[in-house]
Design a protein that fits this description.
2 copies of one chain form a homodimer. Chain A has 193 residues and is α/β, with parallel strands linked by helices. The first copy, chain A, is 56% helix and 13% strand. Chain A has helices at 15-26, 33-42, 45-56, 61-67, 77-95, 105-108, 124-133, 142-161, 177-180, 182-191, and strands spanning 3-9, 30-31, 98-101, 114-121, 173-176. The two termini of chain A are 13 Å apart. Chain A binds chain B through residues 10, 119, 121, 166-169, 171-176, 179-180, 184, 188, 191-192, and chain B through 10, 119, 121, 166-169, 171-176, 179-180, 184, 188, 191-192. Strand 5 (173-176) of chain A pairs antiparallel with strand 5 (173-176) of chain B, so a sheet runs across the interface.
Chain lengths: 193, 193
């Protein structure tokens, strides 16, 4: 049974950096949003998915497209991407132990693998500093940007998982990366592996 | 500046046990609900508090009591206990480094001390088992008992602190004691001291 470390994180908390450092320390792969999107493109998952759905749906290709051009056989684009992502996350988890950052992996996995669920957060001030310095965000109102991003993440997560994003009880460990420091977070998470 | 470890916890999660073990490991005192109540009785805090309030309130003793027998000079019993508790928690924090379990200490402290805020939780099944085995609760519907106790704690906390109990972002570290085990929780918390 593979062990998967999932990292949910507030925007600007350094969760992705922590995920990469944990993976490096443990010698296992780390998949984040960018990498998973790249996999989606490279593997032609989209094509395969559409073909499969096409075989099983009552509402065939041209009819579905006629109803809504941005729909994929009755699913809207977001639902479609959710389904694809979920399958990719599950396939990655079946391959080997790994770290997965974001993508609601904590809610998607758990039946076939041992999951260590982590949530990383930090004070607003520390996150605002981080997104300006490290992510190259514009310094105008980073607070608003943080609020918008977190609101979207929370909404997306809740919509697809029926769980409350950032509620301590959903995770094995939640850490404040600003108070504890990135290195200590990496140590704590690695020690749970 | 004293360092105070505050432990908030879901009912039946073993938070009190973890607090005591952390304190023992670090060689500092641990104050939990029972101990704080005992201090309240022993120090005659109640008497002192009433005398003080009596000097400053416009609505003197007999009049206040006439309006509501369970009121203490305009405060109801719960508000009164909250004020006393808050003062005792602050006095304890001024004395020395320590662990404080419950009593909203995480929200009360922070101005004059370095606070390490911890939240301990666990799966419902593990907590139900714990309260029957260790706390001697009756085995009939421990789930309902857990729900009631947590609801009360969350409501009390939110009412007096304006914060959401169990939201990861309020704490430095949140740990699932059932998945991680009591000993590992103790190790992680002690390592932050």
């Amino acid at each position: 049974m593979n062990t998967i470390i999932t990292i949910s994180r507030q925007f600007g908390s350094g969760g992705r950096t922590i995920g990469r450092m944990v993976a490096e320390k443990l010698g296992i792969p780390c998949y984040d949003a960018e990498i998973i999107e790249k996999i989606m493109e490279e593997t032609g998952f989209e094509k395969k998915f559409i073909e499969e759905k096409g075989e099983h749906t009552n509402m065939g290709g041209w009819l579905a497209r006629a109803f809504a051009e941005h729909d994929f056989y009755g699913q809207n684009t977001q639902d479609y991407l959710w389904t694809v992502q979920k399958r990719i996350v599950r396939e990655l988890a079946e391959k080997s132990d790994c770290v997965i950052v974001g993508r609601c992996a904590d809610a998607v996995l758990g039946e076939k693998e041992k999951v260590i669920r982590v949530f990383i957060h930090a004070d607003q001030e520390a996150r605002a500093k981080r997104i300006v310095e490290q992510y190259g965000e514009r310094p105008e109102s980073p607070e608003k940007r943080l609020k918008d991003k977190d609101k979207k993440r929370a909404g997306y997560y809740q919509y697809y998982t029926d769980l409350k994003w950032g509620a301590a009880e959903h995770y094995d460990v939640c850490l404040n990366s600003a108070h504890l420091g990135i290195d200590r977070c990496v140590d704590i998470i690695s020690s749970l592996y």
